[in-house]
Amino acid sequence: MCGIVAYIGRKQAIPVLLEGLKRLEYRGYDSAGVGVMDGGLKVARAVGRVRVLEEKIDETGGLPGTLGIAHTRWATHGGVTEANAHPHRDDRGKGHGIAVIHNGIIENYAVLKKYLEENGHTFTSETDTEVLAHLIGELYRGDLEKAVQAALREVTGAYAIAVICEKEPDTLVVARKGSPLMVGVGNGEYVVASDSSAIVAHTTQAFTLADYTVAKLTRESFRTSTIDDVEITPEVRELEFELAELDLGNFDHYMLKEIHEQPRALRMCLQGRIDVRGGEIVLGGIAQHARTLANTKRIVLVGQGTALHACMVGRYLMEDMAKIAAEADFASEFRYRNPIVDFGTTIIAVSQSGETADTLAALQEAKQRGALVLGIVNAVGSSIARETDAGIYLRVGPEIGVASTKAFTGQVMTAAMLALFIGRRRYLSQEYVGKMLGELAAIPDKIQRVVDASDTIRSIVAKHVERENWLFLGRGINYPVALEGALKLKEISYIHAEGMPAAEMKHGPIALIDSGMPAVFIATRNSQYEKVLSNIAEVRSRGGHIIAVATEGDGHIGTVAQDVIYVPDAPEQLQPMVNVVPLQVLAYHAAVMRGKDVDKPRNLAKSVTVE
Ligand code: F6R
Question: Whose Cα sits closest to atom 7 in ligand 1?
Fold first, then answer.
């Protein structure tokens, strides 16, 4: 979704802003723009990539100035045009030279626009953001901070904004509610951004703005207050990751890098948390809720997309190992269903970015209804991490590739630890937990073996890469893996793929099978192996081309499947972490072979901050 970068300091702003926008490119966008203060306000905007904007700035001879704002826009209100790109300005004739960049949605923009038009404002774009620029201009009485506070008291919706004004050429005002925004605190300079990846090159000291908070930044100091002007002191903390973690290294794409990182990332996820010998799990973040969790009656895991698939695996783990009734639901559906949630319910919000608007809204709803709300989140200090009662961080490092990979395996790993943690407090023996923890610790090496077999997977993909329709089928705990395999393929290669429970085929979808249609079966040896073999036979006899993900040493599978990807054996509950990896690799190679931009798939945003 939209990315924000803003700078005030002593350096030239443009290099900082453009470098920041490039760091945020992974979030997804379709146009970009900058506004720089240098005597007056100068704005440049362009449809397309940041490099197009960069060329445009170069053509004009550059934009000097040490205060500026920059934005990548992912269109919501209004099409992908230069006029709709940010920054937006207040009415030039009557205005004050105010420029605004915004991530989020101003829900009451239509009412505000009408009011402003009646007061003589004319609009040049279709965006909700322009309304905010005019509103700040309308309320400006010589103090930008106060005008922003006053404007934000009038709006409903979500926002992260950065505002500059010609009449205050040494002031940057930023604010947020519901959309992410972080302020990096340097020496005589501030770098503000949607996430820390655009900040770490300049400083490792940063604070996250709380909802309904405004920060006024000058080169000398900063002041933070609520939109009602109550002064507050933010907590400045050390950013945890290194700039090196954001670089591609020797990989062609972030997705490939992150697929390869999984063994190391999962070791980090486990580090210091499992005691194999003692059969104990140490989860500091949720320790104070151990008793409530042991007595919880029902667990609901909520997330979107890949995170939802991790929730679905988590549901099996909670039922099987913690022996608690569990459900997994789209956060977006759960939120609006008038769900039955009470004090006996625990909600687990699963999210890589910690900023997904639907997941955030779902947990807020559940909290209001009295549930204990936990988070399984990657991004430290993110909105979901802060809004939950307690939580467990994935610790898999920043995920830049739009297609989520290491976050998924990290989410499943974390859910497995949590299920064992709860189960141990209910009825699981120390011996069983110790054995399972040993198996958890063995998963990274098993994933390494799958990653090392990438060439075999690539040669299988090469045979089918022209096919436009694929099926992914699995049963039980491997059903979400099938869903995840299909999602990975469609989102980066634009191939139509469907994931479903293998047994469901007979109830309609089998009509889709035509000669040579690739059908990927998750067919590792587990309690439903024989049933999966029957499902394979049903598809094969109708002409489908079977690609099986199977257990190493399975001598039979090669007689029923035309292509086999062998993976190491693991306990059934943990097998999804291994089984998903060949599907990630498969999708990656398919996208590369089809010439797609793996890390920037069309229409997609890494972090979906609107509902
Ligand atoms: C798919 C993908 C998305 C995200 C979803 C939730 O590869 O990345 O489906 O999983 O948008 O995002 P988070 O985990 O940030 O809440």
Answer: 403
Provide the sign of the torsion angle of the four alpha carbons 583, 587, 590, 592, taken in this order: negative
- Phi (first) and psi of residue 423, to 5 degrees: -60, -40
> Is it true that the peptide bond before 87 is cis, omega within 30 degrees of 0?
yes
Domain that holds residue 224: 3-244
**Does the reported pTM lie above 0.70?**
yes
Q: How far is the CA of 606 from the centre of ligand 1 (A)?
A: 7
Q: What is the DSSP string of 151-164?
A: HHHH--B-EEEEEE
Q: What are phi and psi of 107, to 5 degrees?
A: -70, -35
Is a pLDDT exceeding 90 seen at residue 76? no
Domain-terminating residue out of 426, 448, 470: 448
Q: Are residues 439 and 480 in the same domain?
A: no
Distance 488 CA to ligand 1 centre (A): 11
Tell how strand 31-38 and strand 190-193 pair up: unpaired
CB 33 within 8 A of CB 70: yes
417 and 315 together in one domain: yes
Q: Ligand 1: which residue has its CA nearest to atom 9?
A: 305
Q: What is the tens place of the pLDDT at every residue in 145-179?
A: 999 999 999 999 889 999 999 999 999 999 999 88
